[in-house]
Write a structure and sequence with these properties.
The protein is α/β, with parallel strands linked by helices. Helix content is about 35%, strand content about 30%. Strand 12 and strand 13 form a beta hairpin.
């Protein structure tokens, strides 16, 4: 699949000497959802701001749909929709006018049918005549998304789009995102709700201290770096595990009523069968077993912790 966004050797050093980005390389494919994860201060917002033409890079190249953001700024920017973290809207203007005006800023001809479609898809149609100041925080964030979609961009940046949004609106917002992907729009998402990235993203990029630590398909990443946890419920409480299990990484929990066993999904053998046999040999009777896969959040925290070490 063709890359719609190409970033090569991107650096940003501020006059203070702080290097926000230190050689970022990234290619994003058309029609995918990429989750850009990183702790506060990792460089996420700086990267997005440079791509969108809000901040000048110190060096490196960014091409959007083949257009260099420096030489062909207008053509590149016309392909991008940006939903920022901050809610900055004209409070006394109507929702309809705010969104329609945004389309005009990109030189697009008037298209009331498109504006109506966008507002309906975001459950804003009933609020089209309301002033922005009358809306809740979650609805204002939806207006930001409508503004970003007004000029029919091919790439949509969502910078913490569900911050302050209730669960119902959040679910509806992700349904909208899925609809956009179905129409071929490329989505780049930053979020502190990592479970959202785990659910919706095709690929995961992790950035920390201005560098991309990895870019990988979500399923492959979780299979490669994830661990599984086996929980063994016991028929009878035990006060301690026999000494022979000391080097097997077992953990006695729930006041001796259960055992945790962590194993690597990449290994040829998990060791589960032999473990269960050995426990039975020691007279430890099992009542139930269950497994749990490491979450994306656990993988992310581990990556960032390793990078900071």
């Amino acid at each position: 699949m063709a890359s719609i966004l190409e970033i090569d050797g991107l650096k940003k050093r501020y006059d203070s000497g702080h290097e926000a980005l230190s050689g970022v390389d990234l290619k994003i494919e058309e029609g995918e959802i990429l989750a850009l994860l990183g702790p506060n201060g990792a460089g996420k917002t700086t990267l997005i701001s440079i791509i969108c033409g809000l901040v000048n890079p110190s060096s490196g190249q960014v091409r959007v749909g083949g257009h260099d953001i420096g030489r062909d700024y207008r053509k590149a920017r016309a392909l991008i929709g940006l939903v920022p973290q901050e809610i900055a809207l004209e409070p006394f203007e109507t929702v309809w006018n705010v969104v329609r005006f945004s389309r005009g800023l990109f030189g697009k001809p008037r298209d009331d049918a498109h504006i109506e479609s966008v507002l309906r898809s975001l459950s804003l149609w009933d609020k089209r005549s309301a002033q922005v100041r009358e809306l809740s925080g979650g609805m204002k964030r939806r207006v930001l998304i409508a503004k970003a979609l007004a000029h029919e961009p091919r790439i949509l940046f969502l910078d913490e789009p569900t911050a302050g949004v209730d669960v119902e609106l959040r679910r509806g917002m992700w349904e909208v995102v899925e609809g956009l992907r179905a129409r071929g729009v490329t989505i780049i998402l930053t979020t502190h709700y990592i479970e959202e990235a785990e659910e919706i993203a095709d690929r995961i990029a992790v950035i920390n201290r201005g560098q991309i630590l990895l870019v990988e398909e979500k399923a492959r990443l979780m299979a490669r770096m994830g661990q599984k946890e086996l929980r063994i419920e016991l028929q009878h409480k035990v006060d301690a595990l026999p000494a022979r299990f000391a080097d097997q990484g077992l953990e006695l929990i729930d006041d001796g009523q259960a055992i945790l066993f962590h194993y690597d999904t990449r290994g040829d053998r998990t060791g589960i069968a032999s473990l269960l046999s050995e426990l039975a040999g020691e007279g430890i009777v099992l009542r139930d077993i269950s497994t749990r896969q490491s979450s994306l959040e656990e993988i992310f925290v581990g990556l960032v912790s390793e990078d900071a070490a």
